Amino acid sequence: MASLGSPLRTLRSLLRELRYVSAKAGRPYRDMAAYQHLREAFRAHRITSEKLCRAQHELHFQAATYLCLLRSVREHLALHQVYHARGERSTEEAAGLVGLKLPQQPGGKGWDP
Amino acid sequence: MWRRCQRLFYAWPPQTPRLCPTPPFGGPRLSLPGTARTYTPPTGGFEINLDHRKLKTPQAKLFTVPSEALAIAVATEWDSQQDAIKSYTMHLTTLCNTVLDNPSQRNKDQLIRAAVKFLETDTVCYKVEEPAGLVELQKNEWDPMIEWAEKRYNVEIGSSTSILGPNIPARTKDTFTSHLASYNTWALQGIEYVIAQLKSLILSMGVIDRHIPVEKAVLLSRLEEEYQIQRWGNVEWAHDYDLYELRARTAAGTLFAHLCSESSTVKHKLLQD
């Protein structure tokens, strides 16, 4: 049963992820609907009179799940861009790997490529 | 070209991620959708507007979700698209599309049956006998989960080292069937997605019941891989890639299931002095 940590930390990480999203969208992050919703949710459910509040834990779990989603999508995309986003090498580059050059045929190949 | 690319927008049937390099889905669009906003029509439910045009599912139905938080999350997903629409990063949108369109025409019973079927080949019930470190790790990590599930649902599951797997009594399956039947279709689609990703009913129930966080569930699902990584080393472009993709999909599925199955009320209590 792993603990979720403090809600403040989750909120701050969520805001940081939203800043990354808004940097892509080109808008300030305070305009985003997600920012408003998170702020209201965290403020409204901060204080309850009960010592062990199950609803608070549920909300914190939801926030932590959303944080995991945003973070993993960003990291996955970053890894994809670094390792898997380049297309195949062209024939010239592939030949150049071993020091060969493709033949130049000024008359054309004689058939459709 | 839009019709051919439609099937990338569904969460079911499951598509294996492609590791060979491909150009981004859709290519550069002529006009990238700008701001994505949620909108509440008077009939209830929530829609998404992209640049004042309503978002539609691949089968051209209107995209309506029952929960406002879900609509905001979907709008955020669309906002994070830059240069090209990468549908493999929009997990919540694909889940919503699957529920709204239901491309494989599955009703609630079929969903529940597919989910409970995973119990017979549940990951945490299959143990190995060979490398002693892995046996120890499985005993320490998986046994508490099985005990928790047995206690929480009052069933018997057990684990086995044989190739046939554990012998699940019919009463266990009935208990899980009736428990899953208490969720609505939207939440059930999310739950079934999580089960298919983690390859384990027990771990999915642990996450849906908020017993373990998503990262821990993914770790337990990939326990043998983590053991081998610690032994032989980590390959970033394969191991980390798979790890983050699994985490993203599982987190999307659980968030979807939770947002579609809850309703919240705020009760203000007066301070009594």
TrEMBL record, chain A:
Assigned GO CC terms: mitochondrion
GO biological process: apoptotic mitochondrial changes; dopaminergic neuron differentiation; mitochondrial proton-transporting ATP synthase complex assembly; motor behavior; negative regulation of lipid catabolic process; regulation of type B pancreatic cell proliferation; response to toxic substance
PANTHER family given in the database record: PROTEIN FMC1 HOMOLOG
Family label: Belongs to the FMC1 family.
Function: Plays a role in the assembly/stability of the mitochondrial membrane ATP synthase (F(1)F(0) ATP synthase or Complex V).
Protein name as annotated: Protein FMC1 homolog
Gene source species: Chrysemys picta bellii
Upper lineage: Eukaryota, Metazoa, Chordata, Craniata, Vertebrata
Name of the gene: FMC1
From TrEMBL, chain B:
Superkingdom of the source species: Eukaryota
Topology of the protein relative to the lipid bilayer: Peripheral membrane protein
Pfam families linked to this entry: ATP12
Localization (cell): Mitochondrion inner membrane
Keywords on record: Chaperone, Membrane, Mitochondrion, Mitochondrion inner membrane, Transit peptide
Chief localization: mitochondrion
UniProt keyword Mitochondrion present: yes
A GO cellular component annotation in the UniProt record: mitochondrial inner membrane
Database matches in InterPro entries: ATP12_ATP_synth-F1-assembly, ATP12_ATP_synth-F1-assembly_N, ATP12_ortho_dom_sf
One GO-annotated biological process of the protein: mitochondrial proton-transporting ATP synthase complex assembly
Family matches, as Gene3D superfamilies: ATP12 ATPase, ATP12-like
Quaternary structure (record): Interacts with ATP5F1B; involved in the assembly of the F1 component of the mitochondrial ATP synthase (ATPase). Interacts with FMC1.
Protein family membership: Belongs to the ATP12 family.
Function: Plays a role in the assembly of the F1 component of the mitochondrial ATP synthase (ATPase).
Protein name per its UniProtKB record: ATP synthase mitochondrial F1 complex assembly factor 2
Lineage of source species: Eukaryota, Metazoa, Chordata, Craniata, Vertebrata
